Amino acid sequence: MEYEKSLKAQRDLFAVISTAEEKAKQEGKVEVALKAIEKGFDNKTIQELTGLSIQEIERLRKNAD
């Protein structure tokens, strides 16, 4: 029983860490996209650099104004 609890706790911790890592990656992509928007890059180039969708980039453009 203790082993199962320990295993569950480890899995839960791993899930939290994985989620945090993904959130940090996404935030990094958004930061790069915003800088590229400021520099006048087109949507296609920003998409290639960040992996963000055109819709996400358009949303960032609207919010950046």
Q: Which terms would index this structure?
A:
mainly alpha, 3 helices
Describe this structure in words.
- The chain is mainly α.
- It has one domain.
- The chain has three helices and no strands.
- Helix 1 (2-38) runs antiparallel to helix 2 and helix 1 (2-38) crosses helix 3 (54-64).
- The longest helix has 37 residues, at 2-38.
- The protein is rod-shaped and about 60 Å long.
- The N and C termini lie far apart (56 Å).
Secondary structure layout plus pairing:
Blueprint: H1 2-38, H2 43-50, H3 54-64
Number of domains: 1
- How many runs of DSSP E, i.e. beta strands? 0
Strand % is: under 5%
Please report the number of helical segments. Answer: 3
Helix content: over 70%
For the CA atoms, what is the radius of gyration? 18 Å
- Summarize the helix and strand pattern as letters: HHH
Span between termini? 56 Å
* Uncertain residue segments: none
What class, by secondary structure content? Answer: mainly alpha
Kindly report the oligomeric state of this protein.
single chain
Label the overall shape. Answer: rod-shaped
Please summarize the sheet with the most strands.
Answer: none
Let me know the average pLDDT.
94
